[in-house]
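Suppose you are handed a protein chain with no further information: no name, no annotation, nothing but its sequence. What can you learn? This example shows the usual starting point.
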Amino acid sequence: MEYELISDEDYYHLPPEATKRFLAIEQVCRRNMTAIVSNETSQSYNALIRTQYMTIVSATAEELGVEGVNYIDNYDSIDQDLAEFMRRVSGVTAKLRLRHSPQADELSVRLANKTKGLIEHELTSFGMLSPIVNFPMKKRKI
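A reasonable first move is to predict its three-dimensional structure. Written in structure tokens, the prediction is:
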């Protein structure tokens, strides 16, 4: 059975920023792991896939300087190791996503698409009229 948690193409298309690279690699590996592991595959095969997920994600975190993600092998079973590992990774990824999510300016407002369209139309109309109007240089605000 052939599998790949993350392909060369996936690596090629990663974002340049270290934090976003980590988030992308973890997401791709987790998605592929859950797609590969099933009741139809052997327990040893599933353990191999889960171990590779933890190895890739912990190595990526180490390489990119993401703290709080370490390989787990303290428990009696790979399932327990994976559960603890995913708990920790989920916490780290949540913190990283919050830190890198766009912050709304407290004085800004979100406009409906219709309102934005009307404003853009008015600005376009104004842009067409402004060359026609001859303002003296002293009164122009640029």
